[in-house]
């Protein structure tokens, strides 16, 4: 039994020493397609942009942890017969992701994301003084939590990724209204 334990501890030590942690970082940017869920009649998505930095630690040949800091433009539109109101929000997003990577550069990822609302406003295409907008802080939460799932390709310096973010906490203070969206990214890695 002692010999077996000694052999197992030797093997574990060798495996751990063979696993060198590699780090990489880069930039990403692209379009966002966000909406409010459940939306209801007249609610549609808003297209915006996101941009930021990412940092990856590769722990094994197939598993990595990636942290990002992103500026993200999100929101939704509400239309009725008279006008369209656009709700525009800017967030600072911090996703923390577990990635499963292949040697060919393909990857899938999932993890939590926290967002801090930096600004928000409402606009209308036809406001003749008939609409008084309520200040954003009175009806929206400043912090939101989301889940993320996605994938992409990054081999060498350039890549492409796509991620779906689904709201876990409500964007709205007194009712259900999760911010959900798709982000498509061009990736650049510093080597």
Helix content: 10-25%
Rounded to an integer in angstroms, the radius of gyration calculated over CA atoms is 22 Å
**Beta-strand segment tally:** 8
**Structural class, from secondary structure content?**
mainly beta
**Binned strand content:** over 45%
The CATH architecture name reads Beta Barrel
Shape: elongated
- How far apart the termini lie comes to 47 Å
- Number of separate domains: 1
Strand order of the largest sheet: 1-2-3-4-5-6-7-8
What does the largest sheet look like? 8 strands, antiparallel, barrel
From the 3D structure, determine the CATH topology.
Answer: Porin
Average pLDDT level: 87
The first-level CATH class is given as: Mainly Beta
Number of helices: 2
Task: Please give the structural blueprint.
Blueprint: H1 2-18, E1 22-37, E2 43-58, E3 63-79, E4 84-101, E5 106-124, H2 136-139, E6 143-155, E7 158-167, E8 178-190
Give a quick set of tags describing it.
mainly beta; eight-stranded antiparallel beta barrel; Porin; single chain; 191 residues; 2 helices
Give a description of the structure.
This protein is mainly beta and 191 residues long. The protein has one domain (21-190): Porin (Beta Barrel), CATH 2.40.160. The protein is 11% helix and 64% strand. It is built from 2 helices and 8 strands; from the N terminus they run H-E-E-E-E-E-H-E-E-E. It has helices at residues 2-18, 136-139; strands at 22-37, 43-58, 63-79, 84-101, 106-124, 143-155, 158-167, 178-190. The longest helix has 17 residues, at 2-18. The chain is elongated and about 85 Å long. The mean pLDDT is 87.
